[in-house]
Amino acid sequence: MACRKDTLLLVALLSFVTFYVRAKVDIDMDDTVSVYRGDPAELHCRYSFSEEPSMMMVQWFVKYPNGSRERISYRDLTIERVDEGTDYTDRITVAGDSNSETLTVLTVKLSDEREFFCQVNGMAAGNGERKTHLAVFDPPEAPVIEGVHSGISVSSHLLSKIASCEARKGYPRPNITWYRDETPLIPINGEINVVTLVTREASGFYTVQSELQYKITKEDKDALFSCKVSYFVPGDVRTSASQDINITVHYPTTNVELWRELPKGLVKEGDTVEIRCQGDGNPPPPYTFNREQQPEIELDSTNGQLVLHEVTRRDSGVYQCRTLDLDTEEDVVGNMHLTVHYLDPAVVVPKDSEVMSKGESLTATCNALSSLNTSTVWFKDDREIGRGHMLFLEDATFDTAGEYVCEVSVPTLAGFQSTGSVHIIVQGVPKIKDAENVDMEERAGKWVNLSCEARGYPRPIIAWSIYGTQSWREVLNRVTEDSVQSLVTLKVTSDITAICNATNDMGVETKTHSIKSMSMVTPAAKFQAEGSGIIIVIIIICILLLAILGSVLYFLYKKGKLPCGRSGKQEIINVYSTAEKPNKEDIVVEMKAEKTEEAVLLKGVNGDKKPMNDQ
């Protein structure tokens, strides 16, 4: 009996093993899921059974750094729950169906980077387990670079610290690369070395510090150094660059340059000249100045600057700037040639003044010694009259006299000029302006002004000879170098002859003013008197006519011939209305309708047959 039971148990066990071997489950999971710190992470577990399971159970496990595992959730056909008392109790959710399940980590931390296991058990239908690695990323802060503050000498034979670069709070660990003018620096023995320090903080972040050690040369004085940090992000690698820095390189002076800073262009006498000296060394060495022909005399200068005040032609020559090459301990010299241009005062021939006779000719010259080509212009009364260093004056007249100014200038140097002058005097017999004799008529009793102006050299004298009046006087006598003007005022009492005599050592010239005296009663006054008489006659005639008209009206009124009733008024109105029309016959006819005597009287008043004088 016992043997039979053992046989039945063995058969059942073999049957179960045979069924289990035939049944299996396939599980599909991502090898890695990458997320940023703080984001949610979804872990998918997809499975399928070869046989429909009658019972199914899905469990999630995590593996800690020490190798231990802990279940964090459980689900079967009737129950779905998150395990209590784990690091994920409040940070995960689980959702699934018959073929898949998704575990969601709500807010990912750096410590969540580990393996997550999905275990599926279908009992007789099969069981299995797969895992997913959760990768967490957090970019570092922008790299901060700091260069050395002191200068670095190229004379040093050792590697020198150039700069340091730091990238903080990154995960996973970032990497730092150094660049010179955008070219990556690869460590080379004896030339380039990079020292890196990696720090893992308690929070899990990495901080990377890198120091660049470099063999400096003179060519690095203008180079730009920078560092770039590279870091991982989900599905990619990114970089972040620091700002560029330039380092101070110390190197000896091997060449000196000397130039003129001021003035720009050509230098002329009186200018202030500024000469500068600069070498190719750093830091700039002290400089001294001297003239090539006097090397033992040091000129006063400040910080590589030599100033020469109010230079003259004697300051022309070669100037030198000197400094010391510290490597060879030899002088480094720069040279510059300075040319100071000059323009001497203009010399005019004839000098100062020259006396000419009318009709003569003269040639004047103007020259000025200069280091540059010059141009000469002649002026008289601020008006240009010629060009060139020679001026020709021909057939001199009094208008030729005056001040002649020559201006010598340098066309290539603005404002560089010199002037000279000559005074020309033209001698001759006096010449009266508007010398023609003058005939004029003036009313007796009127005061008249007479003017006489004469030119000549020696300056003439004006004398007046006046006949016909004793009432005169000279009110103006104005003189210049070669002219005189006289003004007299006189009273016309009769016909007058006034003679202007202009005399000098060379001769005399005269001008006569003849004034005819006119009566006090002029044609205009006569016409005015006659006109006044005519007006008086007209007024008297008008008064007589009004008197006659008044007498007639009064006579008719006394005779009762003037109607006073309504009809009479109408007749008077008719008379006035008819009078508006210049037809005398109508008036006569209308008055005849009453009485013939009135008509005769009216005809005597208004008739045309009487002469004008009788009326």
From TrEMBL:
Keyword vocabulary terms for this entry: Disulfide bond, Glycoprotein, Immunoglobulin domain, Membrane, Repeat, Signal, Transmembrane, Transmembrane helix
Localisation per UniProt entry: Membrane
Region forming the signal peptide: 1-23
Molecular-function annotations in GO: laminin receptor activity
SMART domains, sorted: IG, IGc2
Membrane topology: Single-pass type I membrane protein
PROSITE patterns: IG_LIKE
Pfam families: C2-set_2, Ig_3, V-set
Record-level GO cellular component terms: plasma membrane
Main location: membrane
InterPro entries per UniProt: CD80_C2-set, Ig-like_dom, Ig-like_dom_sf, Ig-like_fold, Ig_sub, Ig_sub2, Ig_V-set, Surface_Rcpt/Adhesion_Mol
Transmembrane segments: 533-557
Domain Ig-like: 23-135, 140-246, 252-333, 345-423, 430-516
Presence of keyword Transmembrane helix: yes
Name the UniProt record assigns to this protein: Cell surface glycoprotein MUC18 isoform X5
